[in-house]
Amino acid sequence: MLTLLAILVDGLNYASWLFMVAAGLTLIYGVMKILNMAHGSMFAIGAYTSAWIAGWYFTGADSMWGYLLMLGGAIAAGAFVGLVIERGLLRFLYGRDPVVMILLTYAVLLILEDVTKLIWGVDPYFAFQPYTLLGRTQVGPLTFANYDFGVILVAAIIGLGLWWGLNRTRRGKLLLAVIHDPEMSVALGINVRAYFLLTFVIGSILGCVAGAVTAPAISVAPGIGVEVIVLAFAVVVIGGLGSVGGALAGALIVGFSRATAVHLLPQVDLFVIFGVMSLVLVVRPQGLFGRAQPRKI
Amino acid sequence: MKTNEGIGWSAAVIIAVATLFAVSPARAAENGKLRLGIVTFLSGPASGPFGVPAENAAKLTIAALNSGKMPAPYAMKGINGVEIETVVVDEAGGASKQVEEFRNLVERQNVDAVIGYISSGDCLAVAPVAEELKALTVFFDCGTPRIFEDATYKYVFRTGPIATTDNIGAARYVLDTLPKTKSFAGINQNYAWGQDSWNDFKAAMGVLVPQAQVKTEQFPKLGAGRYGAEISAILVENPDLVHSSFWGGDMEALVLQGAARGLFDKRAVVLTCGETGMFRLAEQMPEGAIIGGRGPYGVFAPNNPLNEWFRKEYQAAYNTPPTYPAYKIVQAILGLKNAAEKAGSESGKLPSTDSIIAKFQGSSFEAPSGMVVMGLGKGHQAVHGIAYGTFKLNADKSPTIINVRNYPAECVTPPEGTPSTEWIKAGMPGAKCG
Amino acid sequence: MAKDRTLLGLTLALALLMAGMAVFPQWLTFLVMMSLARGLVVLAVVLQMRAGLVSFGQGLYYCVGGYTAAMLGSLYGVHEVAVLIAATILVSATVAFVLGTLLSRYRDIFFAMLTMAFSMILYGVLVKSSALGSTDGFSLPGMTFFGWTPETQSTAVYILTCLLVYLIALAYHYYQESPAGYLAGAIRENEIRVEYLGSSPQRLLHCKYVMASVIAAVGGLLSALATGHVDPEMAYWTTSGEFVFIAILGGTGHVAAPFIGSTLFSFVQTYAYQFFPYTWQMVLGLVLLLIIVFLPSGLWSLVQRSGSEKPRAADH
To answer: In this prediction, does ipTM exceed 0.95?
Structure first.
């Protein structure tokens, strides 16, 4: 019973984190058909920015403003870096082979890895205050940090925001058209390039926000970006590339299978994600929410 | 398509480049300096806690040696009067990359000796190559006992103790301070280091504290950063004690998340690498945590003139007290210096590699961590005691270690020729713990 | 069409490389040897890439090759390289045949991701195997080469590498000139038309997958012999990613491109390590970025441009 409760909370918690990391990736893929390896760098930059702000802000006084400042800083960083990469590099290379685009983002990842190192150094940043300030909740022998519930809340807000933005606003609907068929959208007079820019910036911001929210619970050190990319890839592929709903489903599946494994069968932890990914792809080659591509003659 | 020209062309370019580089930099001895290769993590997660402190300590020590400012018995300038110059290489990239870079260090950069390697995988891969190239190599930090248990080397030395001693020492400290422990759990990184650490600790507990049951063994991925589910699993099992060989950012994340979730509230915790994070974590470190530093380093180092000098200089230069990787690389440099000076007859000349090796084997030398004895692996592997202590926050919020216990080398190290895992399983026969 | 003088070119390259042994400093011999071994894996990636499939898990076979050799050598006491080569081919072909039945149904990003997943599962299994040294891996013993016990192993491995690469490169070249080779481009362009022409793309891709796997496994075997050490990192996704990267870097137009790409990559990397120990990743990233931006068809396009003919359609 206790284990079940723990699996439920841990699974949900991990799933919301995965969703946050994967949402930006899947959005960028959906619109631009680029599997953005540099998303890991966005995560790292967001984490560093917020840890740096937290370290500077939380030196005694505690208030909710700190949290907003951390988020705001990460959003600003994401918007800035996203803009620079899209305007400075990507826009010259649209239409290249998808593999070349992946490798391009890999080169960006390598460069950003050292840029973060040059800015913030190699010593881990340790911004714990926001994590402990919110207190904890006790359920029998189990203790949960309230901050983790906050993470679930933020993920839910991001999910709802994306859903609302895509389905309930004019721009979002146009974006859906671009996702569905970019060529037709151009023919209909949609400025697809502008939507590419918008998407890349939003995707980068989402990556940074994921990092910012994670930062207080971890020790922000070089290499954290690389760790999350492959996780995010797996989640996105399970759900179906380019689908925000799919990313949610993928995150929930991976989150709960991993939590279950940790509690009941800790030996298999390392395989869970790729095992689930293989299984899903074997049964549904397009991922859970992916649309099967019609075969062109 | 003139493809053959293409291939011929490219081959010609490669040959041209090759001849260009065949004219390599002057051999070290030719410019009158000792060229020392330093290999340590400069990027990636191990750079902050290990790589860079070690590099800093090496720089500081070498600068002091070159200016002849080291306290006795190392007051002679450089190594045997020869000035030291360094070539620093990043340890990142995996074992085969490191084998390649090691060859480049020795053959292209013409270093006279290499000091380095934090990752055990790198050490295992580099050791046979060092032997092949006849390049004097001193490992300073990697811990796996397999290096000298599985093979014999002439050109390879290790001045740090094997990792087995960490976990035997940890189990002994548990026996000495918490003998009533009834159950324990482990959370270790899922790679060779974590697996070996947990197996050694579990086996040593089985011998020393036999009534204690294993509750759960968690192996999250290296660098995972988030341990929510693992912490829950341990909370559900409710053991008396938690063992972890986490290091660096992972260890800090575990301590932070564990503290927020009450993992350490009514439970003892053993952090075998806790020392590197103790000053950084300070108030976050759980009161009463059992902390190790992989040997008599850092806060566990004895009071001797060398240590006083090192601690003062390091604090002044980098504004933080030195942690164990810093101590360990200094130890490696001093081990090399000691051997070279014993081998060298006239000052200002570098003795031959073979004569340095002859003096390095089985030597004992002073280091900031006390006397180091090269007592295992036919005189190529250092044996060292280990110390554990309990973390306490002073009234002025400064972190400190109380209740320190030192376990001498004979107490925690297997005798020559006995693989460490078998020695523990056999009940550690012949251990002398004073 | 100009006369195909690849045979001549490759033979010339082999002769130069063999002669190079006498003049190369040792570190360069090692670098060339490793580049050729890794070049084989890149060649395997290219083989599939020409048919439109990008494998992000070629490290799987790189690792299978290395571990087959290392396990036979140090656990079962097999010290004859000929046996190791045979065993590597057999094991990798069997594994590839089984996985290929599934994978040949996948295309695009799904093929990429599924190959990556399989490779990561092998990584997970190896990390869990403490008998095999987990992430530390283990070392290979000394070998005999077709009955000959060399004085210095690295010389023998160098000769073996050059010869094997030469043979595989030739075989690859003539395969690409065969109908089955040309069909790769057709499959990439439009699979259904290939079906209408009476060929089975699926069977052909399965076949190519097995071939690519064997080539990659031989690459793994050679690099294990060269470094004398294997570890699970060989199957990690970043390793596979690097192979894809080099494939793009070199270009897919000609059999020599992967080897040139791989050698150049090694040079850039090792000098970045030497001159920029703190920022080598950035230097590497910048170089790669420049190549992608200015040489979209890889380094081989430099060589090709010097030729008078226009590139063939399949040479992108």
So the answer is: no
Low-confidence ranges of chain A (pLDDT < 50): none
Set of chain C residues whose Cβ sits within 8 Å of the Cβ of A233: 113, 116
C117 contact residues in A (CB cutoff 8 A): 234, 274, 277-278, 281
Residue of C nearest to B96 (CA): C227
Counting as low any pLDDT under 50, the low residues of chain B are 1-4, 22-29
Tell me the C-alpha distance between B142 and B168, whole Å.
17
pLDDT digits (tens, 9 = 90+) for C244-266: 989 988 888 889 999 999 999 99
Cα torsion angle, C304, C308, C312, C316, sign: positive
Question: Which tokens belong to B335?
Answer: 């081990």
DSSP assignment string, chain A: -HHHHHHHHHHHHHHHHHHHHHHHHHHHHHHH----TTHHHHHHHHHHHHHHHHHHH-SS---THHHHHHHHHHHHHHHHHHHHHHHHTGGGSTTS-HHHHHHHHHHHHHHHHHHHHHHH-SSPB---HHHHHT-EEEETTEEEEHHHHHHHHHHHHHHHHHHHHHHHSHHHHHHHHHHH-HHHHHHTT--HHHHHHHHHHHHHHHHHHHHHHHGGGS-B-TTHHHHHHHHHHHHHHHH-TT-HHHHHHHHHHHHHHHHHHHHH-GGGHHHHHHHHHHHHHHH-TT-SSPPPPPPP-
Q: Do A100 and C292 touch (CB under 8 A)?
A: yes
pLDDT digit string, tens, across residues C78-125: 889 999 999 999 999 999 999 999 999 888 888 988 999 999 999 999
Q: Which chains touch C (3 or more CB pairs under 8 A)?
A: A, B
Residue C245 contacts A where some CB pair is shorter than 8 Å? yes
From A230, which residue of chain C is nearest by alpha-carbon distance?
A: C237
Give how far C63 is from chain A: nearest CA, Å. Answer: 17
CA distance C89 to B370: 54
Q: Provide the pLDDT for residue B23.
A: 46
What residues of A are in the C interface, CB distance below 8 Å?
A: 35, 89, 92-93, 96, 98-100, 102-104, 106-111, 113-115, 117-118, 226, 230, 233-234, 237, 241, 267, 270-271, 274-275, 277-278, 281-282, 285-287, 295-297
Chain C closest CA to A114's CA: distance in Å?
A: 6
Q: Does B252 contact A131 at a Cβ distance shorter than 8 Å?
A: no
Cα angle value C116/C120/C124 (rounded, 5°)? 175
Nearest-CA distance C181 → chain B (Å): 18
Pick from A35, A107, A282: CB nearest C292: A107
Q: Which residue of C has its CA nearest to A297?
A: C192
Looking at residue C4, what is its pLDDT? 75
Q: What is the pTM of this model?
A: 0.90
If we measure between CA atoms, which residue out of A266, A9, A141, C131 comes closest to residue B214? A266
Does C293 touch chain A if contact means CB atoms closer than 8 Å? yes
